[in-house]
Design brief:
Shape: elongated
Number of strands: 0
Largest sheet: none
Helix content: 40-55%
Strand content: under 5%
Distance between the termini: 94 Å
Oligomer: single chain
Number of helices: 21
Number of domains: 5
Order of helices and strands: HHHHHHHHHHHHHHHHHHHHH
């Protein structure tokens, strides 16, 4: 920092906030009034290092006024900035030398603001971010580059690149500040170039470290990428830096280019080894926020199939993306149903993604072209798992099984097999078999549902009694039951009103005994 401020020694500040603001305003007036007072810029910039948050905020606002005025007046050097240590030729006039010098002070200010993005105070982080974005707007109006961009449009790429790099530290979680930056991502030009710089930043980190991405860096990248709301209209015209010319040939003005960059940065990010928690976050938004906005969604096939093979909650979450690829992009996955079948274990009733899983499982098993043995295996496995399932889950599982049988009448022998034995020992079904074709489900019966007719919860009993009657052709609606919780079940029971309930059916004789009891005979009152 000291080097950026011209190697001036820092002074100890002991003044109160009001006197600091007065001093800063005085220094600002001096600099803007006469170039002879240009060295007062150092006094303003020095406050950006203050240990007092209030002083830093005042210095940021003062720098904003100062450099906004200098940019408007054209008092900053335009073009490739010479190094501050470089000897300037004697032929260069004092005017140019002053502008180069002041441009270096502006560069120091920007560097300080980028550093403040990592400050412990969110108020300072936010203020520094807003000032940097304001400078982007000002540089768009008053460019510091000598030549136009090749497309004929101006955008201060270097400054936004510094901002994006500042939001992606490798050792600090900036998720809160990234949430604040999200409003700027609504601008088409900021969104496009931000994606571009994220992509470059990931590659740069890989090049520098040769190590896996740190958890903090991964979370910051995901925070930025997940904050991007992709546009849907082909006509893009919402720019932070207003362009004077029509923007038809400018990449940030084309939806196709946005999709290409969006796809490129996500693919570059997802090829890295992610933490399990981040894996889950990606899969949660993949089907809604990523796949629909990619130019070629089929590029995600390898990522999704690898996630589906991991098992557990990650496999459950991968179902959404696979569903889109299978139904909308003709993905072929030969062992899909075998893997889906293997996901049915007792834990599936207790994960927080239970509703999502059974919603998709219902869709996958809705086809009437599925082989009978497959549907029978799913129905039987769910029936067996229902023996240890909580009551709120049983209210959904029982109609789920009945719906499978309604769709596939060939499975009706499972509930109409009068000679079937209702016990685990003689049941031919092989619960441990992971291949539904070898489970022998069609040779068994759903005796477990009959056992649930003796369940302690009355609503479960009523649901299980359905199999004792002829099944109707109309399927049961289970969408409202998918997210039914134990709390809701308890609340439902608490709201019920009961009549008089007999507490005892046989009067007690004495304190301890009952009728015809030896204790009552000898110790009754």
């Amino acid at each position: 920092m000291a080097a950026r401020l011209g190697k001036r020694a820092k002074r100890t500040r002991g003044a109160d906030g009001e006197s600091v603001r007065k001093e800063l305003n005085s220094k600002l007036g001096e600099v803007l009034q006469s170039r002879a007072n240009a060295n007062s810029v150092f006094d303003i910039l020095e406050y950006l290092e203050s240990e007092n948050d209030g002083d830093v905020q005042a210095a940021i606002r003062t720098c904003s006024k100062l450099f906004e005025s200098l940019l408007e007046k054209g008092e900053l050097y335009v073009g490739d900035l010479p190094s501050e240590d470089e000897h300037l030729p004697d032929s260069m006039g004092a005017e140019q030398k002053y502008k180069i010098w002041m441009r270096h002070r502006y560069k120091s200010c920007v560097s300080c603001l980028v550093d403040l993005l990592h400050h412990n105070s969110f108020q300072l982080q936010e203020l520094a971010l807003c000032m940097l974005m304001k400078f982007i707007v000002l540089e768009g109006k008053f460019p510091l580059e000598a030549a136009k961009w090749k497309d004929g449009y101006r955008f201060p790429h270097p400054l936004l690149k510094l901002v994006v790099a500042g939001l992606l530290p490798e050792d600090k979680d900036l998720s809160t500040l990234i949430t604040r930056f999200q409003e700027y991502l609504e601008y088409d030009d900021v969104r496009y170039y931000t994606m571009s710089w994220i992509n470059e930043n990931i590659a740069q980190v890989h090049k520098n470290t040769k190590e896996p991405l740190t958890a903090a860096f991964q979370n910051n990248v995901f925070g930025l990428l997940s904050s991007i709301n992709m546009p849907v209209d082909n006509e893009l015209s919402n720019f932070l830096v207003v362009q004077k010319e029509k923007c038809e040939d400018w990449k940030p003005a084309k939806l196709k280019e946005h999709k290409r960059m969006f796809e490129k940065v996500w693919m570059n990010f997802l090829k890295n080894k992610l933490a399990v928690s981040l894996y889950k976050k990606v899969l949660l938004i993949l089907h809604e926020s990523i796949l629909p906005h990619m130019s070629k969604p089929t590029l995600m096939i390898d990522f999704l199939t690898a996630a589906y093979d991991i098992g557990g909650a990650i496999s459950l979450l991968a179902l959404n993306g696979l569903f889109l690829l299978i139904h909308q992009h003709n993905l072929e996955y030969p062992d899909f149903y075998k893997k889906l079948y293997s996901l049915l274990d007792p834990s599936v009733f207790h994960v927080k993604y239970r509703a999502r899983f059974f919603h998709l499982a219902n869709l996958f098993l809705s086809s009437t072209h599925l082989p009978v043995y497959l549907v029978a295996a799913f129905a039987k496995r769910l029936s067996r798992l229902s023996l240890t399932a909580p009551p709120q889950v049983l209210l959904m599982i029982i109609p789920f099984i009945c719906n499978l049988i309604r769709r596939h009448p060939a499975c009706r022998p499972l509930i109409h097999r009068p000679m079937a034995s209702g016990d685990l020992i003689s049941d031919p079904f092989i619960m441990e078999e992971q291949d539904p074709a070898k489970s022998q489900a069609l040779e068994s019966s759903l005796w477990e549902l009959e056992a649930l007719q003796n369940h302690y919860y009355p609503d479960v009993v009523r649901g299980a009694n359905v199999i004792s009657r002829a099944l109707s052709s109309q399927e049961s609606e289970i969408s409202e039951l998918l997210e039914f919780s134990s709390y809701e079940l308890f609340e439902k029971q608490m709201k019920k009103r009961f009549g008089s309930v007999p507490l005892e059916f046989e009067p007690v004789r004495g304190i301890l005994g009952r009728k015809q009891d030896i204790t009552a005979e000898h110790f009754s009152l």
